[in-house]
């Protein structure tokens, strides 16, 4: 399985790039969002990848973050969602947008992607909603592919962890807080919900996210 490529970008096309890795060229298909972040020909590039294997086809798809790669894998696990549909959803919403839509049950946001009908959008939300917290938790620890412009741009964008005696707990709370902020919740509200969830016994990042989301949900 090819999980990541780092090399020199040889050329760019409309929906794919060719990456030279030690003299071997890999053709990698990317969404328009990802293509927009990549450098020009001759420059260093690094992408997380997912290999699609069929009887008559081997196709690599590239992503700038592990969260985006994981959503691609999960989206393709939904019956009726192939690689093209998954890339369309990620291109329309981005990985954070997919996390937000699925967590909040907003299938209309999924339906906004090209080629995605209402039934498929609803199926995506229903089948993946329980998996969203775990994917969101990856955002706190999963680095961007080294050398990508996005990695350099976000290097200073750090959310301070909530004060706590436990280093492990502090890390989990920081990851949960980051995921909630990416969903659009205010820093103060998110931090309060995470702290309350931790006080009620949640310690792992996915558990903190689930508990905090329940606390942040509109009452009544």
TrEMBL record:
Homotetramer. Forms an RuvA(8)-RuvB(12)-Holliday junction (HJ) complex. HJ DNA is sandwiched between 2 RuvA tetramers; dsDNA enters through RuvA and exits via RuvB. An RuvB hexamer assembles on each DNA strand where it exits the tetramer. Each RuvB hexamer is contacted by two RuvA subunits (via domain III) on 2 adjacent RuvB subunits; this complex drives branch migration. In the full resolvosome a probable DNA-RuvA(4)-RuvB(12)-RuvC(2) complex forms which resolves the HJ. The RuvA-RuvB-RuvC complex processes Holliday junction (HJ) DNA during genetic recombination and DNA repair, while the RuvA-RuvB complex plays an important role in the rescue of blocked DNA replication forks via replication fork reversal (RFR). RuvA specifically binds to HJ cruciform DNA, conferring on it an open structure. The RuvB hexamer acts as an ATP-dependent pump, pulling dsDNA into and through the RuvAB complex. HJ branch migration allows RuvC to scan DNA until it finds its consensus sequence, where it cleaves and resolves the cruciform DNA. Keywords: ATP-binding, Cytoplasm, DNA damage, DNA recombination, DNA repair, DNA-binding, Helicase, Hydrolase, Nucleotide-binding. Has three domains with a flexible linker between the domains II and III and assumes an 'L' shape. Domain III is highly mobile and contacts RuvB. GO terms for molecular function: ATP binding; four-way junction DNA binding; four-way junction helicase activity. It comes from the Bacteria. Residues 73-92, 108-127 form the Helix-hairpin-helix DNA-binding motif class domain. One of its GO terms (cellular component) is cytoplasm. Its main location: cytoplasm. SMART domains: HhH1. InterPro entries: DNA_helicase_Holl-junc_RuvA_I, Hlx-hairpin-Hlx_DNA-bd_motif, NA-bd_OB-fold, RuvA, RuvA_2-like, RuvA_C, RuvA_C_sf. It is found in: Cytoplasm. Residues 1-64 are annotated as: Domain I. Belongs to the RuvA family. Residues 168-220 are annotated as: Domain III. This is Holliday junction branch migration complex subunit RuvA. It holds the Pfam family RuvA_N. HAMAP family: DNA_HJ_migration_RuvA. GO terms for biological process: DNA recombination; DNA repair. The gene is ruvA. It comes from Litoreibacter ponti.
């Amino acid at each position: 399985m090819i999980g990541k490529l780092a090399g020199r970008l040889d050329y760019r096309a409309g929906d794919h790039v060719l990456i030279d890795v030690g003299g071997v060229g890999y053709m990698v298909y990317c969404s328009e969002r990802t293509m927009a972040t990549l450098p020009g020909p001759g420059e260093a590039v690094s992408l997380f990848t997912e290999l699609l294997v069929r009887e008559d086809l081997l196709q690599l798809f590239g992503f700038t973050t592990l969260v985006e790669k994981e959503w691609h894998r999960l989206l393709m696990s939904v019956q009726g969602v192939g690689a093209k549909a998954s890339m369309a959803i990620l291109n329309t919403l981005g990985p954070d947008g997919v996390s937000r839509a699925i967590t909040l049950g907003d299938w209309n946001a999924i339906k906004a992607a090209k080629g995605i009908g209402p039934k498929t959008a609803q199926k995506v939300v229903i089948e993946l909603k329980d998996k969203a917290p775990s994917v969101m938790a990856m955002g706190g620890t999963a680095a961007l592919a080294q050398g990508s412009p996005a990695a350099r741009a976000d290097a200073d964008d750090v959310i301070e962890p909530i004060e706590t005696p436990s280093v492990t707990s502090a890390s989990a709370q920081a990851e949960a807080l980051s995921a909630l902020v990416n969903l659009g919740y205010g820093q103060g509200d998110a931090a309060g919900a995470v702290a309350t969830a931790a006080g009620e016994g949640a310690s792992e990042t996915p558990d903190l996210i689930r508990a905090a989301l329940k606390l942040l949900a509109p009452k009544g």
